[in-house]
Specification:
mainly alpha, Serine Threonine Protein Phosphatase 5, Tetratricopeptide repeat, 2 domains
Length: 247
């Protein structure tokens, strides 16, 4: 009888142990399944995030490419406009020179009693050759040589009728060399010493452009306002008014 009780007890313990083992396996499988679901959800979220990031980077790259294209287009249009304006000035300069009388060498050429000035400005043909040589260098994009030529011209023929033009092109030669400080210095001579010349309004406009590029919008605005006030009917004044409206 005692042996039978022991046997039944052992049997019950074995069944309980088997049942517990079965429950442990089910719990483990459930936990593994839950973990798998969570990992898959996390991977899906990470994949979605990476895809969104890739799409965002793609859109940004497209936007940068678009903006770069706009900058290149605007740069090209600006350079084209500058070249067109420069060609206009060159053509105008050439046309006006053809209309000038060959003997117009300035006050020094007229005043025969002033020997010092006559020595430098008494030969209109030579003045014309020196001026043309500097201008041809400018047309050939030899801006350094052009600046040397125009600088020598205004020193040699300060009273020549071509001196204002030479001083103006000297300033533009410095602009072409990206030397705005020297350009402003050269153009300021036109606006003061040769304030009555046809080139003075354009020199004010060139100075304003350089001042703006040098990060001095206040000075640029002042130059534009001076241009409009002093030369209201000059073509350059119309450009100045347009710029002032945008400031």
């Amino acid at each position: 009888m005692r042996a039978l009780r022991i046997a039944l007890l052992l049997s019950a313990l074995g069944a309980a142990s088997a049942q517990a083992g079965m429950f442990d396996d089910e719990e483990a499988r459930r936990q593994i399944k839950d973990l798998t679901i969570k990992n898959e959800a996390r991977f899906d979220q990470q994949g979605k995030t990476q895809l969104d990031l890739a799409n965002q980077l793609s859109r940004q790259s497209e936007e940068i490419a678009r903006l770069r294209g706009q900058v290149e287009t605007l740069t090209y249009e600006l350079e084209t406009a500058k070249k067109r304006q420069q060609d206009f000035y060159l053509d105008l300069d050439t046309r006006l020179r053809k209309l000038e009388p060959q003997g117009a060498g300035g006050s020094a050429a007229v005043d025969g009693g002033n020997a010092a000035n006559s020595a430098g400005a008494g030969d209109p043909a030579r003045e014309s050759r020196d001026y043309e040589a500097a201008l041809n260098n400018f047309k050939a994009n030899k801006y350094k040589e052009a600046s040397w030529g125009f600088s020598a011209f205004v020193q040699k023929y300060p009273d020549s009728s071509l001196a204002p033009n030479a001083q103006f092109w000297l300033g533009n030669a410095f602009i072409a060399q990206r030397n705005c400080a020297k350009a402003i210095e050269a153009h300021s001579v036109v606006t003061t010493k040769y304030a009555d010349s046809a080139k003075a309004p354009d020199s004010w406009l060139a100075m304003a452009t350089c001042q703006q590029e040098m990060g001095n919008p206040t000075a640029a605005k002042r130059s534009l306002e001076t241009l409009v006030a002093k030369y209201p009917n000059a073509p350059a004044a119309d450009t100045a008014r347009d710029r002032l409206k945008k400031k």
